[in-house]
Amino acid sequence: MATSVMEMKIKKTSQLKLRVKKLWSNKPATLGLAICLIMTLLSILAPLVTSYSPTHMDFTSISQPPSAEHIFGTDKLGRDVFSQILYGGRISIYVGILSSLGGTVIGVLLGCIAGFFGGKLDSLLIRFSEIVMTFPNLILVLVMVSILGQGVNNLIIVFVLTGWMTTFRLVRNEYLSVREETYVSVCRSFGISNFSIIFRHMLPNTMSPIIVSFTVNVAFFILAEAGLSFLGLGVPVTISTWGNIMNAAQSIDVVTNYWWLWLAPGVAISMFVLAINFLGDGLRDVLDPKQ
Q1: What are phi and psi of 196, to 5 degrees?
Q2: Model confidence over 204-230: pLDDT tens digits?
Q3: Domains (range + CATH), the chain
Q4: Are 77 and 57 in contact (CB under 8 A)?
């Protein structure tokens, strides 16, 4: 018995090493992971990275271009743009990850139930998701934001409630296919509970679309937060986010004469979103049992 347990541990260790090696050999995924970690750590450690506060106004340094003192320049109120991007990354990344996580959990749970049991329950859930998806996502988000009000947590709740349908449909379709596999019938014949079959035996074989959906949603929600904040409907303007920085730089005068005010946050958003997508593609290839 001890030998069997030891062999299982060795097998799991070797599989982990193989997956890490495969991920490391995927250059875009490795680059994406590095960029995500670096940008996240810089945002978390913002007080150690910069001595400037994102809300501190220095009227002697208004609209200064990038320099040794302010590497990303200053805005029209004399605030350091680099510190705004670092502190703003905290909120934007936080909103993207938590919103995607909440939407993924709801989508996975409902997708597992619908795909495994089928029948009227599946029809009811799929019809409900279709009704929600008939509304344009942006319109639905705007309506819910107007009801709940502006705020970081309110925005996360809105994204979670409107962002689970894609994951739900992906997981449901995977379960409709996987439940016909032989090992599922064997599990049933041995009297294994439905809960164990759904979450211990079937779920690991559907992780690839879940991971891809999670990473895509992180990128989507970061862009959605930036878009809503740019329109003045997302996070309150008193809180630094990448979208609010872009919102402050939307005038024609800024676009033509103060390029650093929109270029720096635009590059930050683009880099993080691309990095997340590269990482998601790499994890899909590594964790897909069919590969």
Answers
A1: -70, -40
A2: 878 878 888 888 889 889 888 888 887
A3: 28-56+72-287 (1.10.3720.10)
A4: yes
